[in-house]
Design goal:
7 strands, Rossmann fold, about 35% helix, 6 helices, binds 5-O-phosphono-beta-D-ribofuranosylamine, alpha/beta, about 210 residues
Length: about 210
Amino acid sequence: MNDPYVRPRQGTLEDPLRIAVLISGGGSGLFALVTHQLSIPSCYATKLIISDRRDAKGLIFGSEFEIPAIAIELPTTNDTHQRRLFHEELIHQKLLESQIELVVLSGYMRILTPSFVKKWKGRLINIHPSLLPKYPGAHAHRDALADDAKITGCTVHLVDEGVDTGKILAQSEVPILEGDTIEVLQNRVKKVEHKLYPKVLDKYCTTG
Ligand code: GRF
């Protein structure tokens, strides 16, 4: 049976919830999130940025915002399952060491194993670029265009043991326009993601 979600404590202005943001690429979502946090008195604070790729451009925001930003890459072992578990254990230890209370996936392109999810369930949140349950997985925009959909969007959800199947917290719609390419659509969806994710975190971190 799947484990229940265990919510983080309620963040306060005096003692903001300590969050880590996990990325794999450009980090525009991370940038939007931290910019939002710094623009208002916030009940959560980004204390750590982790990328699974050393070349992730988003790591640069660590120095810009004076937040520790590190790459934890996949170890080189032959057994792919062991490698995933070991990688996640390195991340888990770093999260504990930094006293992280909520893990925010923002363009983190690895699927987490049930063993990692179990440790953080309810304290592990993701944004996905489609209106789930439509178009789960790594190619949401491609799949929406191939489906000739007229509407797509983004979903903020808690992470469970499945792929993009966790409890939905909020969604925003985005139109698909004639002639859209994956890139054009991705940029339109990202603009909406950058508003939705901070809004959901504001709520999730203060309702305990
Ligand atoms: C976002 O669209 C996110 O939903 C998806 O990957 C993209 C990440 O973009 N999983 P960025 O790295 O935040 O620019």
